[in-house]
Amino acid sequence: MAADSGPGTPDTPVDRPHPDSDPGRGRRLAIDVGSVRIGVAASDPDGVLATPVETVPRAGATGRGRKSGRGSGGTTPAGADIARIVAIAAEYEAVEIIVGLPRTLRGESGTAARLAVEFAGKLRDSLPEVPIRLSDERLTTVSAARALRDSGVRARGQRQVIDQAAAVSILQSWLDERSSMMRSAEDAARTALFGDDV
User: Fold this and answer.
1) Rounded CA gap, 190 and 73, in Å?
2) Hey, which of 40-49, 70-79, 147-156, 177-186 has the most confident mean pLDDT?
3) SS3 of residue 30 by DSSP
4) Given a cut of 50, is residue 68 above it in pLDDT?
5) What backbone phi and psi angles, to 5 degrees, belong to 38?
6) Among residues 73, 89, 55, 69, which one has the least CA distance to residue 167?
7) Which of 53, 90, 107, 159 is most buried, judging by how many CB atoms fall within 10 Å of its CB?
8) Predicted local distance difference test score (pLDDT) of residue 84
9) Cα gap 20→54, rounded to integer Å
10) What mean pLDDT comes out for the span 56-83?
């Protein structure tokens, strides 16, 4: 796993769909890692449409307004966030998990990117059989918030919905790029077999 050496560094590599590493048909998950919450989205088995799943509290985050009688002041227990993602991956029989890597408009990595990379590393340790990808997710949370606001969702109840909408945006971008990549690969294979007469 690549290390993020801090603000202003464009050194964290991102993944893109590729025929050689594609696991084939099956559901994909995407996660939008925040400091307080994690938005989760899933695809259909054919990898066409992304839909929201849930918002998972971050381990160690207290989260304003969350009622909990356990832990220190409502803090989510260590490892509970990873355990929940692992459970969702099992429930959906995920063949691939896409972790959003937030970067600046100049493609640089900072604190948020470091959190995502660290979380992806822990997820790889817990789910070694499922490919974990890092995907560039510039502005997905901003876009999700704007879309929800434009659709009339009130700000007070938006936060958890925004996290899920950001995950949907990350996953839908991945699915669309994968679909285009698979079509190109199929066209190239067909041309190689039959020539330009196809």
Assistant:
1) 61
2) 40-49
3) strand
4) no
5) -125, 120
6) 55
7) 53
8) 97
9) 31
10) 68
Tokens read off for 160: 């958890």
Whether residue 3 is predicted with pLDDT greater than 60 in this model: the reply is no
Residues 24, 95: Cα–Cα separation, whole Å? 8
Residue type, 150: D
85 pLDDT more than 70: yes
3-state secondary structure of 176: helix
Candidates 75, 71, 78; CA nearest to 62 is 75
In contact, 148 and 166? CB cutoff 8 Å: no
Amino acid making up residue 180: S
Tokens of 100: 């959003």
Cα 177 from Cα 137, distance rounded (Å): 13
Q: Which residue has the tokens 């925040």?
A: 34
Q: How far apart are alpha carbons 156 and 27 in whole angstroms?
A: 32
Compute the average pLDDT of residues 36-54.
96
Cβ atoms of 130 and 104 closer than 8 Å: no
Torsion of CA 127, 36, 58, 55, to 10 degrees: -70
Q: What are the two backbone dihedrals, phi and then psi, of residue 193, each rounded to the nearest 5 degrees? A: -80, -45
Beta bridge partners of 51: 42
